[in-house]
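[Protein data]
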Amino acid sequence: MSEEYDVIVLGGGSGGYAAAKKASGLGLKVAVVDGAEELGGLCILRGCMPTKALLETSSRMRAIREAGEFAIGVQEPTVDIDALRDRKSRLIDDFQHYRVRGLENGDFDLIRGHARFISAHEIEVEGHGVLHGKTFVVATGSVESIPPIPGLAESPFWTSDDIVELPRLPKSVVVVGSGAVGMESAFLFEGLGSKVTIISRSSPLVSGVSSALSEAMEKRCQDLGIDIIIGKSLTGVSHDDSGFTLTIGEDAHISCDQLIMASGRKPNLAPLNLEDAGFPGDLKRLEINEYCQTTKPHIFGVGDVSSPLAVVHLAVMQGEVAGENIAAHLKNEKQTATWDERLNIFGIFTDPELVELGWNEDEARKRGFDPVTASYRYDDQGKGEIVGEKHGLVSIIADRTTGKILGAAGFGPHVIDYAHTMMVALHQNLTVAEFLKIPSYHPTLGEIWTYVAEELMEEL
């Protein structure tokens, strides 16, 4: 094994793997250093894939309970937790083996061990000594961010890492946090039969999305019997054999069988000793430009350590961009590959689903556009009425001057799947008028985008 590489990629998850494949495919000598206990990355092992496998069962149980609306008489469904764990494990094992084969058989060296910078061009890897890199890709992902709440550390609370193992099915659950992990956790356990309460210190319930989408989500939670505490924080935790007692705000108390902390994640940078590579000692996130370069031109960042959204498609996009630009950098050529922040897509796999892509109105205004928005509800759309969607809606944002589509959002059945229609429109820089020339099949849920586009044309 050579001690000097053109590129050393730190982390073998989705972003790091994409960077290594691209760079090695361009003829560069590449090493991937990964110190995780298991290869595969967050998405495959503890994130996207296992949670969606569990949510599929939860959603089907909920659909059985709601079958009466469709003239079907059923008994209360039950879940076999052991069988559910087995199904999830079989799926994840298959996904993981595919990724591990790619890492072990790639045109690059795979080095297992934790790495830390000891200079701008050197890392020390446990068990492997010092490796020299002309360039680096930092793709070490993220870790749970747990707030310092009195009594929390001494209690057996769960995080998303615990949920995917599904240790048991609690009778009652309190979820702290209303981002993607928090909302998906709430819907997972509600579907499986637990009594669920969500604590969200922010208002509206789902921050970062339009008020209309958050209100629709809140109404769906109310329909399902999910309790919501908004605008208050968890301030204390105690636990005994009877369960958890939680202090909310100054003096309110609630009890539950299981506490779930969905308080977010933070870039996994602390173990890397980036200070010895020339970065500030208190670095919280790797800031990158459109070429995925950090402030140190030979060090690139991809995925959760640097993305505006911790989502796989951005990590892969950035990994490929970094690999291509590193090849140009090493040849002293102009870097041309870029990642387009406008092509963000963010989804929450609740029931129904929530999705946002592109820019919202505030982001569009910051970039000098004059945004105009139109919306359309599923309960006024043919297929939406047929499937029984009560609260959902979709919206499109366009520039008033040019008609160019800037973003879109939705809360509705399987909306993440057909949101890719709008991603194509964003990628191709379509105007609303151009988008309306694309035919949609009737009756489908996806044709709702044309309904809202027609509304938007009137606004424009």
